[in-house]
Amino acid sequence: MTELNEEIIQEETDESVESSDDIFGMIGNKPEQLKSDKKETKKSDTKKAEKKETKAEPEKLYKFPFQIYFAGTNHNMTGAFEENREYSAKQITDIMLANHFYEFAGTVDYDYIQETNTLVAMFMQHKKG
């Protein structure tokens, strides 16, 4: 009786293997062929890290007294900044926000004109849509 059961089970497994071979024969890909090769991501990660390191520039510091030019006028900010102290762009932006110049709430870039000792504030325009 157990021999009969073993034979039936063996026949069923043989049939299922043959039917799966037929299916993959029609598709043309066997399970071994479907496995994708592992791509080497380590090389690209190190390249990205190297690029980030080269782009890192030292932060520019601007020494007060200077004028800030934006909105078509020069603004003298002697009350907000300390004399002969250097400020980074982030610090200048924070101080201007604290003095109710809300134009500085977004992204701000600064250009320095040495001849007139002026910082030109350039604001990033955010477009909707």
Question: Describe it for me?
Answer:
It is a single chain. The radius of gyration is 35 Å and the shape is rod-shaped. It has helices at residues 2-27, 31-34, 41-55, 89-98; strands spanning 61-63, 67-70, 73-76, 86-88, 108-113, 118-123. It has four helices and six strands; from the N terminus they run αααββββαββ. The strands form two sheets. Strands 3-2-6-5 form a four-stranded mixed beta sheet, with no helix packed on it. A two-stranded antiparallel sheet has the order 1-4. The chain folds into two domains: 1-33; 61-123. It has 129 residues and is an alpha+beta fold. A hairpin with a 4-residue loop joins β5 and β6 (118-123).
Main sheet properties? 4 strands, mixed
Number of domains: 2
Average pLDDT: 75
Q: Which series of helices and strands comes N to C?
A: HHHEEEEHEE
Structural class: alpha+beta
Helix content: 40-55%
Strand content: 15-25%
The CA-CA distance between the termini, in Å, is 75 Å
Chart the SSEs and their pairings.
Blueprint: H1 2-27, H2 31-34, H3 41-55, E1 61-63, E2 67-70, E3 73-76, E4 86-88, H4 89-98, E5 108-113, E6 118-123
Parallel strand pairs: 2-6
Antiparallel strand pairs: 1-4, 2-3, 5-6
Short structural summary:
With 129 residues, this protein is α+β, with helices and mostly antiparallel strands. The protein has four helices and six strands. It has helices at residues 2-27, 31-34, 41-55, 89-98, and strands spanning 61-63, 67-70, 73-76, 86-88, 108-113, 118-123.
